[in-house]
Specification:
heterodimer, A: mainly alpha, two-stranded antiparallel sheet, two-stranded antiparallel ribbon, globular, B: about 450 residues, mainly alpha
Amino acid sequence: MNLDLPLIWAGLIAISVLLYVLLDGFDLGVGILFPFARSPKERDAMMNSIAPYWDGNETWLVLGGGGLFAAFPMAYAIIGPALYAPIMLMLLALILRGVAFEFRSHGRKRGKRFWTAAFAGGSLAATLAQGLVLGGFIQGIAVRNGAFAGGAFDWLTPYSLLVAVGLVAGYALLGATWVIWRSEHQLHDDARRWSVFAGLATAALLAAVSLATLVVHPRVAKVWGFTGEGFDSGVFLPHLPIPLLGLAGFALLAWGLWKRSHHAPFLGSLAVFFSGYIGLAASFFPNIVPYDVPFRTAANETGALGFMLVGVAILLPVILGYTAWVYWIFRGKVAADAGYH
Amino acid sequence: MGDLDALVLARLQFAFTIAFHIIFPSFSIGLASLLAVLEGLWLTTRREVFRNLYLFWVKIFALSFGMGVVSGVVMSYQLGTNWSVFSTAAAPVIGPLFAFEVLTAFFLEASFLGIMLFGWKKVGPGLHFTATVLVAIGTLISAFWILSANSWMQAPTGFAILPDGKLIATDWWAVVFNPTFPTRLAHMALAAFLTTALAVGGASAFVLLRDPDQPESRMALRMAIGMFAIVAPLQLVIGHTSGELARHHQPLKVAAIEAYWKTGPDQPQSLIGWPDRKAGKTHGEIAIPGIGNAIQGVSRDTVIQGLDAWPREDWPVVGLIYWSFRVMVGLGLAMIGLGAWGVWHVYRGGPEASPWFLRASVLMGPMGFVAVIAGWIVAEAGRQPWVIYGVLRTRDAVSPVGAGQVSVSLLAFMVIYAIVFSAGAIYILRLMARGPAPHEEAPTPEDRAPGSPLAVAGEDQ
């Protein structure tokens, strides 16, 4: 049996990062929306809607990082030093927001206010940091002899800042549409309003990021058919379903908001994220560190990949099964005045 | 020199973040098992005292687990940011162990924790108990993989070194079940159970000093005494076995622990003193001559290698290891004493009647954590200057990043950890001081099913 192990592992890492972005995306989005809530009670309900899941959601980030370490150590060793500052910022922000889930309910007056702010600020900072990581990644990393060879602030450019702001809008959209699905009454109506703003901002910023990527990065532009000489529709057409999926996502979002559907806006937002993610993946393939390290070069040796694949083949379906089961158990609306007695 | 600074700072950052992190797993491993036992007892006996204890300690578990998760995510990314050369070289061998830890343990714990905390009324008692047991198993599986990886770094086996310096596994069985691993895993698991038993005993004793009739705390104190009375002596045996393995695989570490400066037969047993690495001797040492060899389990005329058998550049920091080891062993002996004292009181009818025993229990409450950290210093600092013993030096493992970035992030970690962990300690200590209530409630968020009559009634208020 000849399995293409590096390709399988590239796919597995891509899937775990995608799951992370979608799942922690909506719960980080809930934190980003915290300042717009009407009352502490509304914030309690928002937090309760994600409390049973956030830890499992964040585990996909650990799998993405740990998987990269195990399956593509060279990529891990290049990306870590290259994006040092935003990764550290993300970790610090995730610490503050992670403990806020428990601490907020134990804090008294000032303590509770502090952890409310830490949850909102931590969610926002973690999202910005992830956007900077993503932006720094898309724009390319300087590599020489299999190690990072750039400067400490190479990641900080107008382009990466634009990506970071775009990710904030996107996560806010995921969060707002999640709250529509899981809440009722006043909070539900508020979330609908937030979704409109976040949806418009996401559409505008996604368009801006896409254009900027094509303009700033000719190698990506080439993948999408924009060669130096002009537009090559033969190269573009196979990629057409990706932007179409994004448009369909936005259409589902707008339709769901218009029809006052409870779950269609969230599904629409997920589709938008999914298309953006696939679009990115298509832009760098087969590089795992843009634009000098193809995934095959960075891959671990076959024995290690095979050893891990046995585990993944058995465990991943089990994990997906019980994750879905946990979501099922805590289905349904959270009461807006949950903590009220 | 710039590289050296980044190295020192990266080591400081790792030591700082792991010292904080290890507190939480060593507490949550033991606490998760205690919770599984408590819930099992509640389901079989239906005695309210077990239900209340469960719902009380699960709140402390949630606080501790949350801090363990966030400080653990940091550890997994630090390998890439600060130790990228180590990552490239060692990932082919220990990468899969970390991946298996995520797949077999982290997802299990994270998913079923949600049910454990918030599912008290959402799922049936059998399923809830299953969730608690799965979380407890998850914490032990996690210890399995991380101790396997760490023990491999102490005594690497089952690998080959490629011409480009990368390592490659030749025998996965030998990698996972490396020679010191089973003993070190047992040592760590027992340390976690001891730490939890001392903390639970200390918190219960604190409540009993105020209210000797508090039924939940009386029960918890007895359970804790039972635990550390059995585990503390057992730990002495396992710890000794672990030391014998170290003598075989890392004789230099043992030489540092015991401050054997010179190679020779009939080594003395150093009790206390001030090891001086520069002078190569221990100042003000109190030692018992003639028994060092016996404690190492070899005959008196056997030659035991002293530090002088290795070049100085390979020596670890002798004083730190010497003292950490004595703190760990001293606390271990104190735990055995407390256990014997507690059993005597239980036999006599009531530990809660003895204020001196209760005070001693409160004092010993946090000592498990101190012993765990001291033990880890012995293990980790004792491996230096190697990150993978005999294979890769720590100074060759560090990332190509500037000292500026490492120092700024170290400072930021210190500030954030100071805020987070002091708040966490306050919340946990506040709960411990309050003690379990007669009708302990399940944690928020709301465990009433949406649309249930109670939930609707809640809206009308």
